[in-house]
């Protein structure tokens, strides 16, 4: 019994489709379920977007499979690190949770860019709040799981030498 092997380009397009789906789910949760994203959620969305763009570029190009695989895996692992921090913040005892900050729009308008980026990557008190769960896992936990899968998928393309299907 032989397994069907897909070309790396098709696999990269599948990775892009997964990232687009994740962004669609995020938009649904924000605009339909009215769950406002915190700074770490926005950072995770940016990491999903970056990973998806790399997957898309890899699918469009016929060369550089290994470079694209490494770049997309690195982007996914950066997103996983942000998600891991978010999960960690959500599991802190209430007395150790950092203070809430002003809204992100206010921070962008009145704070230096370096402080804004630091806030988006380290999180604040509102990042510790769990608004929604599925099977006992919060959104950042599911996002961490998705990032790990995306990084694994990208790493598999590093070794994918299928000609075409």
In words, what does this structure look like?
With 165 residues, the protein is mainly alpha-helical. It has a single domain, classed as DsbB-like (Bromodomain-like). The chain contains six helices and two strands, in the order αααααββα. The chain has helices spanning 8-31, 39-60, 65-90, 104-110, 113-122, 139-159, and strands spanning 133-134, 137-138. It is elongated and about 55 Å long. 33% of the residues are buried.
Explain briefly what this protein structure is.
Required for disulfide bond formation in some periplasmic proteins. Acts by oxidizing the DsbA protein. With 165 residues, the protein is mainly alpha-helical.
Which CATH class applies here?
Answer: Mainly Alpha
Biggest sheet features: 2 strands, antiparallel
CATH architecture: Up-down Bundle
Distinct helical segment count:
6
N-to-C span: 17 Å
Low-confidence stretches: none
N-to-C order of helices and strands: HHHHHEEH
- Spatial order of the strands forming the largest sheet: 1-2
Strand proportion: under 5%
* CATH level 3 topology: Bromodomain-like
Number of domains: 1
* Global outline: elongated
* Helicity range: 55-70%
The radius of gyration computed from the alpha-carbon positions, rounded to a whole number of angstroms, is 18 Å
Average per-residue pLDDT, rounded, comes to 82
Which structural category do the helix and sheet elements fall into? mainly alpha
Fourth-tier CATH superfamily name: DsbB-like
The count of DSSP E runs of length 2 or more, i.e. the number of strands, is 2
């Amino acid at each position: 019994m032989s397994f069907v092997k897909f070309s790396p380009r098709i696999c990269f397009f599948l990775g892009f489709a997964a990232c687009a789906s994740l962004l669609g789910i995020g938009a649904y949760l924000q605009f339909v379920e009215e769950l406002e994203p915190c700074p770490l959620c926005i950072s995770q969305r940016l990491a999903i977007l970056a990973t998806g763009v790399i997957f898309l570029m890899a699918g469009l190009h016929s060369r550089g499979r290994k470079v694209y695989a490494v770049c997309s895996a690195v982007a996914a692992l950066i997103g996983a690190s942000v998600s891991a921090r978010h999960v960690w913040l959500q599991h802190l005892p209430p007395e150790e949770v950092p203070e809430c900050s002003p809204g992100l729009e206010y921070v962008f308008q009145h704070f230096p860019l370096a402080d804004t980026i630091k806030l988006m990557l380290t999180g604040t008190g509102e990042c510790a709040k769990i608004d929604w769960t599925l099977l006992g896992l919060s959104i950042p936990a599911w996002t961490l799981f998705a990032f790990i899968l995306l990084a694994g998928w990208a790493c598999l393309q590093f070794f994918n030498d299928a000609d075409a299907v």
